Amino acid sequence: MRFAIYLPPQASEQEKVPVLYWLSGLTCTDENFMQKAGAFKLASELGIAIVAPDTSPRGDEVADDESYDLGQGAGFYVNATEAPWNEHYKMYDYVVDELPALIQSTFPVNNKRAIAGHSMGGHGALIIALRNPSIYSSVSAFSPICNPMKCSWGQKAFTEYLGKSKTKWKEYDASELMRHSKDVIPVKVDQGESDDFLVEQLKPEALVAASKHSNYPLELNIHNGYDHSYYFISSFIEDHLRFHSAHLNR
Ligand SMILES: N[C@@H](CCC(=O)N[C@@H](CS)C(=O)NCC(=O)O)C(=O)O
């Protein structure tokens, strides 16, 4: 597995810094966010490290599919149970356990963690934080897939990776998880209104309904004229960094 890390100038053995994990979307690698988001200037001021994993396992020995929304580049942050995917596709465990253990034993970081992501990675960030509210101080997402059980990207991936049983799917659906969540952490979501994937794939209205059902506090901002691209992310990444910084440094 490849990952990218940004370390702010404050980071040293004397001053260990908190970490924001960033999960990218379909077709991305560990590089997209690092090259396009424009996050480092403010991260250096706030003293936050940023770790961006790849979006799936990779390699000639690793199962793949011709389509862009399944296989390599499309791990969906689940632990696959179905062949051939279950041999390598354990992105949930990788992001929650294996990668943070490696980061903490290798770099001058403390154990404070936040998580954010975009699209498929927004889905990943939300489900990981909602399932582990004691580990993450806050979660944010740009244009997340809010209800993967009810959209074609999610249904295709979950059928392949998890099989047909919807019980397993619910463990990886942010709207299902929020509907039944009791332990609350701060959640911030930004969504562009001119995003071509908004209606068919992203469905923020499902997350809003879940938050109302369980009284889960949700900050959702809809932005007129913004699309699904990294131009949208780079326009609002500073808001997300300040949001996480406020909770990481509590
Ligand atoms: N079919 C589209 C969907 C892929 C897509 O929009 N990917 C988003 C995440 S869902 C992305 O971040 N692409 C990479 C980039 O813009 O750097 C494509 O292949 O371009």
UniProtKB/TrEMBL annotation:
Gene Ontology terms, MF aspect: carboxylic ester hydrolase activity; S-formylglutathione hydrolase activity
Enzyme class name: hydrolase
Domain of life: Bacteria
GO CC, any one term: cytosol
Gene3D superfamilies: alpha/beta hydrolase
GO biological processes: formaldehyde catabolic process
This protein's UniProt keywords: Hydrolase, Serine esterase
Catalytic activity: S-formylglutathione + H2O = formate + glutathione + H(+)
Catalytic activity, EC: 3.1.2.12
Active site: 119, 195, 228
Function: Serine hydrolase involved in the detoxification of formaldehyde.
Stated family: Belongs to the esterase D family.
Name of protein: S-formylglutathione hydrolase
Organism: Aliiglaciecola lipolytica E3
Lineage start: Bacteria, Pseudomonadati, Pseudomonadota, Gammaproteobacteria, Alteromonadales
